[in-house]
């Protein structure tokens, strides 16, 4: 049956690509995949950061391995170069974690026109185009019993209207969630699963302005039903699950990693006193 924890989450022999893999959620995921035995390629616009993170994780003595290099998912040329580099390194790709993304915050009335282009070209257009370009490698890895896996980074802000000041970001993540369902519909018959994670507040460079301090984390945690911000193991465990034997029958899902925020609603329908 393959029911031991090791077998359910084992990724030995699997090859993965994590975009935006040198920091934040991408790095958390990379450590989780390597801990499960995967060979992980990490790429971001900062090649030196990816190389440094690869050295750090490889020094941890985990069963898998990491190799880092530069890759820009925000332009067509950048994606073509990244795909060429991946093709040099492997003929099969079992796991694609589309995590590269950027954010923007500006109040309503001041949210700039250019923000939408910048965010959609990376968070949506880039994610789609990279996935499309890597389909031959994903197809090479796909089988009925062990599908290839695509995991996209969405956001709780793409699920619920709580993305104050992050209009272009929140809407781009809503697009990622729907793209996940659309791609799953088309790729599941080819034995490629497509799922998304929708994180709430996690400590990363992107969120450092708000929750980089303990005080900021405590303040943010007040808005999370489970009462804390996200931890690296929340990301690592979810990726191990989605990419291992235990997640092989899930496709088209948006996994909420937000401590219950995605189900939170204020007030009561009939305004009764509770």
Give me the secondary-structure topology:
Layout: H1 5-9, E1 15-19, H2 24-35, E2 39-44, H3 47-58, E3 65-70, H4 76-89, E4 95-98, H5 113-133, H6 135-141, E5 148-153, H7 167-187, E6 192-199, H8 208-211, H9 214-221, H10 232-243, E7 254-257
What's the arrangement of strands in the largest beta sheet? 3-2-1-4-5-6-7
Tertiary shape: globular
Total of helices: 10
> What is the third-level CATH name, the topology?
Rossmann fold
Architecture, according to CATH? Answer: 3-Layer(aba) Sandwich
- The Cα radius of gyration reads 18 Å
How many individual domains? 1
Largest sheet geometry: 7 strands, parallel
CATH superfamily: NAD(P)-binding Rossmann-like Domain
Name the structural class: alpha/beta
Proportion of residues in extended strands: 5-15%
Q: Write down the secondary-structure element order.
A: HEHEHEHEHHEHEHHHE
Name of the top-level CATH class = Alpha Beta
Helix content: 40-55%
Q: Ends: how far apart? A: 48 Å
Would you tell me the overall average pLDDT? Answer: 92
Q: How would you describe the overall organization of this protein?
A:
It is a single chain. 42% of the residues lie in helices and 14% in strands. It is an alpha/beta fold and 274 residues long. The protein has one domain: 3-Layer(aba) Sandwich (Rossmann fold), CATH 3.40.50. The chain has a seven-stranded parallel beta sheet with strand order 3-2-1-4-5-6-7, with helices on both faces. Strand 1, helix 2 and strand 2 form a beta-alpha-beta unit. The N and C termini lie far apart (48 Å).
């Amino acid at each position: 049956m393959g029911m031991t924890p090791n077998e359910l989450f084992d990724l030995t022999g699997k090859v993965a690509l994590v975009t935006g893999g040198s920091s934040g959620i991408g790095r958390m995921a990379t450590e989780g995949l390597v801990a499960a035995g995967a060979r992980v390629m990490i790429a971001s616009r900062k090649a030196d950061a990816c190389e440094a993170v690869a050295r750090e994780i490889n020094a941890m003595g985990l069963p898998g391995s990491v190799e880092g290099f530069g890759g820009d998912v925000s332009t067509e040329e950048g994606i073509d170069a990244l795909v060429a580099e991946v093709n040099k390194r492997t003929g099969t790709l079992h796991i694609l974690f589309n995590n590269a993304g950027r954010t923007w915050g500006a109040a309503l009335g001041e949210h700039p026109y250019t923000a939408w282009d910048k965010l959609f070209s990376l968070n949506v257009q880039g994610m789609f185009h990279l996935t499309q370009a890597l389909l031959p490698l994903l197809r090479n890895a796909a089988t009925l019993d062990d599908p290839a896996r695509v995991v996209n980074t969405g956001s709780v802000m793409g699920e619920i209207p709580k993305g104050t000041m992050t209009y272009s970001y929140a809407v781009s993540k809503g697009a990622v969630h729907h793209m996940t369902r659309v791609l799953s519909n088309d790729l599941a018959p080819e034995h490629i699963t497509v799922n998304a994670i929708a994180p709430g507040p996690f400590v990363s460079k992107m969120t450092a302005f708000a929750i980089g301090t303990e005080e900021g984390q405590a303040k943010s945690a007040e808005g999370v039903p489970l009462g804390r911000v996200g931890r690296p193991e929340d990301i690592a465990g979810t990726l191990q699950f989605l990419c291992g034997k235990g997640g092989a029958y899930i496709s088209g899902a948006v996994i909420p990693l937000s401590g219950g925020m995605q189900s939170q609603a204020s007030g009561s329908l009939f305004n009764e006193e509770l």
